[in-house]
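Can't paste images in this forum, so I'm doing it all in text. The chain is below; anyone willing to post the predicted structure tokens underneath?
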Amino acid sequence: MKGFGARLRELFGLPVRDEEFFESLADILLEADIGPAAAGRLLGELREQVRRQGGRDRESFLAGLKGLLAASLRVEALEPAPGILNLFLVLGVNGVGKTTTIAKLAAWYRRRGSRVFLAAADTFRAAAIDQLALWGERLEVPVVRQEPGADPGAVIFDAIASARARGGDLVLADTAGRLHNKAPLMKELGKIDKIVRARLDPAGYRKILVIDATTGQNALRQAEAFREAVGVDSVILAKYDSTAKGGVVVSICRDLGLPISFVGTGEKLEDLEPFDGERFLDALVAQE
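Text version of the structure:
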């Protein structure tokens, strides 16, 4: 299947001012998972750009499109606040790679000198607790856990107390991801949120959403649900490939106002890197 950039370049058999050109461009934007709202605004801005500047050559038009996409992106570094205990509450539905992403974050921040603790607050799934415990052993990072079915708020409470008593800098907390059972999950997350807010400096508290970047508009709907229910401070894209469903990044930033902090590019602990908006757009509009 041809990528976004290759399909864009094929459009230039049509006059840039031609309505067929913009209809075809709309199809390409939607197929790249730039959602209807974001795609509609982009088309309006591109029409206005063409009206003001006249028909332009292919590369100039692509540069203009890239500039508009760049203006849509929001990028935010996810740095622990210095001198206080931080807690990153990691959100996401089951299956997106949330627990593996937590392990990658633990490795990332450990390499940068943080004393990291893990909190296994997805108590609904014994496998999630066990998986996080295994990552903790491998990384030599303390894991605060209780038995399956325990109160996740109690796990968070204990993790904060343990990290504070042992000189921790950062707690990375796993959470349940039963979005299909939305009301109980969101009630649970709301309770956790209240516990954290009562015990930590707000400057050290972040709610981080992990989404599977290959799932396109499903990822956008998940981000919207979590943002509305408990709030989201930033997004991590797992299973990232800008040439697959990469346009959803534009929708998340533009439609929901959420910044992207990291991308996960593989299964290894090292396969996590800060989101680079310029590199993302270069890959998205590349010919191949």
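The chain has a mean pLDDT of 87. Strands lie at 86-91, 116-120, 143-144, 170-174, 205-212, 234-238, 260-264, 272-274.
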